[in-house]
Amino acid sequence: MDSGTEVTFAASNSSLESGGAAEPAAALHLLSRQPSRFKGVVPQPNGRWGAQIYDRHARVWLGTFSDQEIAARAYDVAAVRYRGCEAITNFPGERPSAGELAFLAAHSKSEIVDMLRKHTYAAELRHGLCRGRGMGARVQPTTPWAQKLLFEKVVTPSDVGKLSRLVVPKQHAEKHFPLKRSPENTTGNGVLLNFEDGEGKVWRFRYSYWNSSQSYVLTKGWSRFVREKGLRAGDTVAFSQPVYGQQDNNNQLFINYRKTPRKQDEAGHPDDAIAAEARSIKLFGVDIAGGGGREAGEKGTANSWET
DNA sequence: AGGTGTGTTGAA
DNA sequence: TCAACACACCTG
Length: 307
Hints:
Layout lengths: L40 E3 L5 E7 L2 E8 L2 H16 L14 H8 L3 H10 L2 H10 L16 E8 L11 E3 L1 H7 L14 E6 L5 E9 L4 E4 L3 H8 L6 E7 L9 E7 L14 H11 L24
Parallel strand pairs: 6-10
Antiparallel strand pairs: 1-2, 2-3, 4-9, 5-8, 6-7, 7-8, 9-10
Helix pairs in contact: 1-3
This protein binds a DNA duplex through strand 1, strand 2 and strand 3.
């Protein structure tokens, strides 16, 4: 499961509910859609929980969570961002701190929603509180010189294709990303790793070993990164770690990327992964066919607009 | 295949 | 505004 500090207003009292009979069993979810006792939280068919908030007649999806209490906190964060600190929340006792309010104010609604959906809100808030001191200054990315390069990889077509996973070269994986069965962050198989990108944004990927292909891979969360950055086969991704603090610094890592120069083809997003793949395979990074295919509205995760 | 998130509807 | 419900489509 995801760590307990997924989403939340600093505190964590909440004697509300969880105390008593903590779900006799998750067994009833097959046919009985037990409604959530939390505002903005809806049950998912598989027993998990979704969070959503409404903004001017439109639903804004805040992501899915394994625990309805965490989903409820995600809703609370969104509620404050969308409706102000007076908004009705699931945990009235846990009001956001001044710092968190500043953090929220410093980010657009869609940015906050993205963090919630990626389950990186808590991590980004920590950074914001740490770095962007004083008024809710925008989060400043960690300067490159504070990062120690671990390794780079030129992404393959399948790394940016519909497989939604990045194969981490075994040598680098075993050297830099030892896959331990550590207590926390362990999700069934694999672990959840946080990476800060060049903009100071945090990404969470599931990292695991696939027996079938005998390879180490970054899976869940990776496709979102590929999509947002518009990564194409031939581009390079670099993984680094903090040069100072112990690498145990909240096991915070960095991920950066570099586009390979292409013929006057701006950073088109590969909406059509298949076409992008075929093109890249043949041309070996040298692109001719212009259209990266962005034009039409982005699909999937395009949501919420700004005030 | 399983899970996520949207379409949609009716109630608050 | 909001959640129940169904299910198309995406991801892992």
